[in-house]
Amino acid sequence: MNPSPFTLGVIQETVSTDADANVRDTAQRIRDAAKRGAQVILLQELFNAPYFCKVTDAERFDLAEPIPGPTVETMQKLASELAVVIVVPIFEKRGPGLYHNSAAVVDADGSLLGVYRK
User: Fold this and answer.
1) Whole-number Cα distances in Å, 83 to 35, 51, 61, 65, 66
2) Average pLDDT of 46-73?
3) pTM of the shown model
4) How far separated are the first and last CA of the chain, in Å rounded?
5) pLDDT in the model for residue 112
6) Positive or negative: CA dihedral 29, 46, 58, 114
7) More confident call, 49 vs 66
8) Which phi-psi region, left, alpha or beta, contains residue 33 (left: φ > 0; alpha: ψ -120 to 50)?
């Protein structure tokens, strides 16, 4: 049995320090990719903030959020609306003092398929 081919959309762009604006801008890019036929959309690592994981910087830990949390839930709604799969890389706060550079995988129905933690 050969699996059916599918179309990937890859989004990578410059981001600002405004996480909400980055999520809004990325949501528009996801809409654009879906209109062009993308069925699985991959976002850049830590897409909602400037990349900072080369060093451990406790000052940036305020960017962390749980999975599910506001950013992943926004992407779940968008995935369901557009019927696309979205890989959502974010800085995850899993518990007190427990942080991960993670990627949530959101299915086309908006459900959370899983989380990959580096």
Assistant:
1) 11, 28, 32, 25, 24
2) 78
3) 0.89
4) 32
5) 98
6) positive
7) 66
8) alpha
